[in-house]
Specification:
The complex is a heterodimer of chains A (about 550) and B (about 280). With about 550 residues, chain A is mostly helical. Helix content of chain A is about 75%, strand content about 0%. In chain B, helix 5 runs parallel beside helix 7. Classes of the chains: A mainly alpha (about 550), B alpha/beta (about 280). Chain B: Pfam families: ABC_tran.
Chain lengths: ~550, ~280
């Protein structure tokens, strides 16, 4: 037990140390995380509103328990989906695994410690659903002190079952499916599955059944009927009904049964770990190799002299395409975006009356395309995080940038080129889709919007890379942390959304006669700022790199 | 006056060769070139966090044609010094010249003079070996024909022919070390700077690298490397610089070191003796 506590403490401190890179002042880290927390407030309010309305509808029917159960199932599902991709990384692919496997530790001890660290991560996701759920319940019901005690116990234990479930699935897959004992392959397939899930979810949320005015309809859909989602989830998460009953009636027996299920699940997990963990964790490949000698023709083809900026950009794109986590987060996300839009429009079905657009005379209003074009460019330029994590992705190799004979400004421009190329390709794809969907819009609209988007893409990428130069996350163990747990990436993403939102808001709020001069003015201003930053890039880079 | 000025000029030009009995004017340019200074570290200090002096007023003058071993205990300031020589860190005081080019004020010119093998060989792991070498050749502006010939030669020397088409991620630690060394050697820089280069290399590659270091120095170039392996320093180096607690406590030939400490019978005991008296 002492080894378990010692290892858990060490792993947790190590994980916390990864978040704060040891160089940045603590206050700044707190501020950044505070900002991120603020970004979640709209989601919390949306969920609160949804639960509160559902409780209001169901309370007179004595059905508040169903809503609580639905909320707990939702929490469990969120935890399960996040952890199914987190667990293999932590249990099998993290760098510390190799060291831990060689220490005189029982597999159960390593597993229990790693599980505990994952549990701490999962509390954050749990609270996002759990807090609005309980707040909604309290709005409609009067409760005793004992209720709060039960709430604390359930909040602390709720993520355990889904985490055990995903841990057991991961252990079985890693033990018995050798195909997945390859880090890159696993990450790529896991990533594609998560994207497929996100798309299905998007389609589900946009389907006509979900597009109702009443927010409680969503909850009703979850709980009504014999084949409801809840009854399906009950098989997946059997502890949840006990937790909701325990909380509604403050029944200690129900709470006891709930905790008993969790203890049994943990016991099964540790026993399975004893037999399967080491066998699964030992001997996985990083990547495949052929060990084939290159012939003369191949050598000649591979070894041609190119300009420094070209070769550097090519290197960046290669790393982005070949690193599964970069590919999925930086490139995949971008190309999924247009697909999500298509799905949203398709799932609207007949409710979208495109034929009505044919009746409108669009001539003479082409300048209306400037602001949407700028907004789209800014959004796409920032959302892929390629420039916003360009320095962070270097990690401990950032020194390489300092000792090679290539000006920092040129290196930064080469890095930015990778972001610009992907952004432009995304915009192109979006415009092709838009043209297919809305052929009635004159081509001039598309051309103006495309040019505006390109201008905004340049500035978006410049701002993103400046942000990452000022605050790079260079201390990480797994590549995933460079993009997924990176504050620059988050700020760039939300910042891009904010600027895009403001540009679109301007289109709606501005009087018609001011739209043309202001749109052109903003476009010229963006272009000028972009040119100034581009010309000063070397000076700025040298200044910011002194702090790295 | 004219005769006096000539005498002074001749004397100054032959200052390094003043022990020669007869000044040979025809041999003068060769003598000056042989003594050309490749790395010059002048009163360099680096302070971390405003208080901790990692490097304290060090000065080193390293001429061409020599292999210099940079040795010292852990935390002595070796890596900080190498980082300052290569432009990764700026010194707080003093200046560093590589082949006469100031690393702070003329960084690009200075960086073209050297190639560095860092202590961490895990770099661009998802590039193929051949792609990494081609990338480095582009950065150091090596033309297509030369890079092809050098890569073929280096791959043979380091037995990497069948690994070049695979990603670096699939390489062992030693192979990663080899590809980084090849990345430096492809541009054939005047100065080689190597941070713990022998770590992880198999005996044959280690031997090849040592031979290459000797050949490189013999051609009039400079090799500056840090090591913990005293036997390597003993067999390879023309001079050693010993650093401890941020200060250079000895710089010279091993014979001079031995002469100063006649009671020590091995480099290990010499090293321990010097460190203990620092």
């Amino acid at each position: 037990m002492r080894k378990y506590f010692s290892l858990t403490r060490t792993l947790f401190k190590n994980a916390a140390g990864m978040v704060a890179d040891g160089k940045t002042k603590k206050m700044r880290v707190y501020l950044l995380y505070g900002f991120l927390a603020i970004c979640f407030i709209p989601l919390l309010f949306m969920l609160y509103y949804m639960f509160q309305e559902a409780f209001k509808t169901m309370a007179p029917l004595q059905q508040s328990g169903s809503i609580l159960a639905a909320g707990f199932h939702m929490t469990n599902l969120v935890t399960f989906l996040f952890s199914i991709f987190l667990i293999p990384g932590v249990f099998y692919f993290s760098k510390d695994s190799e060291i831990l496997l060689s220490l005189p530790l029982k597999p159960q001890t390593i597993l229990a410690s790693k599980f505990s660290v994952c549990l701490l991560y999962e509390y954050v996701f749990t609270l996002i659903v759990f807090l609005p759920l309980i707040a909604g319940y309290l709005q409609n019901e009067s409760v005793s002190i004992l209720f709060y005690v039960f709430v604390v116990i359930i909040a602390l234990t709720l993520p355990i079952y889904p985490l055990v479930l995903s841990s057991i699935i991961s252990m079985l897959v890693m033990r018995f499916v050798p195909f997945f004992k390859n880090r890159d392959r696993f990450n790529m397939i896991g990533g594609i599955l998560s994207v497929a899930f996100a798309l299905s979810f998007s389609y589900f949320m946009n389907s006509s059944g979900m597009q109702q005015e009443d927010p409680s309809a969503l909850v009703n859909l979850l709980i009504e009927g014999n084949n409801s989602l809840i009854s399906m989830f009950a098989y997946l998460f059997p502890a949840v009904p006990f937790a909701s009953h325990a909380l509604i009636s403050q029944d200690i027996l129900q709470l006891g049964l709930y905790l008993l299920i969790l203890i049994a699940a943990l016991a099964v997990f540790l026993i399975m770990g004893k037999y399967f963990y080491f066998k699964g964790a030992i001997g996985f490949d990083e990547t495949k190799s052929t060990r084939k000698v290159l012939n003369d023709v191949e050598m000649k083809k591979a070894l041609t002299q190119k300009s420094k900026v070209f070769t550097y950009t090519q290197k960046e794109l290669r790393l982005l395409l070949r690193t599964p986590v970069y590919f999925l987060n930086c490139i995949g996300t971008c190309f999924i975006f247009p697909i999500v839009i298509v799905i949203s429009i398709m799932s609207q079905g007949e409710s979208l009356n495109l034929a009505a657009l044919n009746q409108i005379d669009f001539s003479g209003y082409a300048y209306y395309a400037i602001l949407p074009g700028l907004a789209m460019g800014m959004l796409i330029g920032c959302i892929n995080m390629i420039s916003a994590t360009a320095i962070s992705r270097e990690g401990s190799n950032v020194m390489f940038m300092k000792y090679i004979p290539m000006p920092l400004g040129k290196q930064i421009i080469a890095k930015m080129n990778a972001g610009i190329i992907v952004s432009v390709l995304t915009i192109l794809l979006l415009f092709i889709i838009a043209y297919i969907l809305f052929p009635m819009l004159p081509i001039l609209y598309y051309i103006i919007a495309f040019i505006s988007a390109i201008i905004a893409i340049f500035l978006g990428n410049e701002l993103c890379i400046l942000l990452d130069m000022a605050h790079p996350k260079l201390v990480w163990e797994q590549e995933a942390a460079a993009v997924k747990q990176n504050m620059s990436g988050m700020i760039a993403m939300f910042g891009g959304m904010l600027i895009a939102g403001l540009l679109i808001a301007a289109l709606f709020l501005l009087p018609n006669d001011l739209i043309m001069p202001i749109s052109i003015g903003i476009c010229i201003a963006i272009l000028l700022i972009s040119v100034v930053i581009y010309s000063k890039m070397d000076t700025i880079a040298c200044k910011l790199f002194k702090k790295i | 006056m004219l005769i006096a000025a000539n005498i002074i000029i001749v004397y100054l030009l032959n200052f390094d060769d003043q022990f020669n009995d007869v000044p040979n004017l025809n041999a003068l340019p060769t003598a000056i070139e042989r003594k050309k200074i490749m790395i010059e570290i002048k009163h360099v200090t680096k302070v971390y966090g405003g208080t901790h002096k990692a490097v304290d007023n060090i000065s080193l003058t390293i001429p061409t044609g020599e292999i210099i071993g940079f040795i010292g205990p852990n935390g002595a300031g070796k890596t900080t010094t190498i980082k300052m020589i290569t432009g990764v860190l700026n010194p707080d005081e003093g200046e560093i010249l590589i082949n006469g080019k100031n690393i702070v004020t003329q960084p690009l010119e200075a960086k073209k003079e050297f190639g560095i093998v860092p202590d961490n060989a895990d770099i661009f792991l998802r590039l193929k070996g051949i792609e990494y070498l081609n990338f480095m050749a582009d950065i150091y502006e090596v033309d297509s024909a030369t890079r092809k010939q050098r890569i073929a030669q280096l791959a043979k020397t380091f037995e990497m022919e069948n690994a070049l088409n695979d990603k670096i991620l699939s390489y062992s630690h030693g192979m990663r070390q080899k590809i980084v060394i090849m990345g430096v050697l492809i541009s054939d820089p005047n100065v080689w700077i190597l941070d713990e280069p022998m770590t992880g290399l198999d005996p044959q590659s280690s031997y090849s690298l040592k031979q290459m270091m000797k050949e490189h120095a013999a051609k009039g170039n400079t090799v500056f490397f840090s090591t913990h392996v005293l036997e390597v320093a003993e067999k390879l180096c023309d001079k050693v610089a010993i650093i401890n607690a941020g200060s250079i406590i000895f710089f010279g030939t091993l014979e001079e070191l031995q002469h100063n400490h006649p009671n020590c019978d091995s480099l290990e005991s010499l090293f321990l003796e010097v460190i203990s008296h620092a």
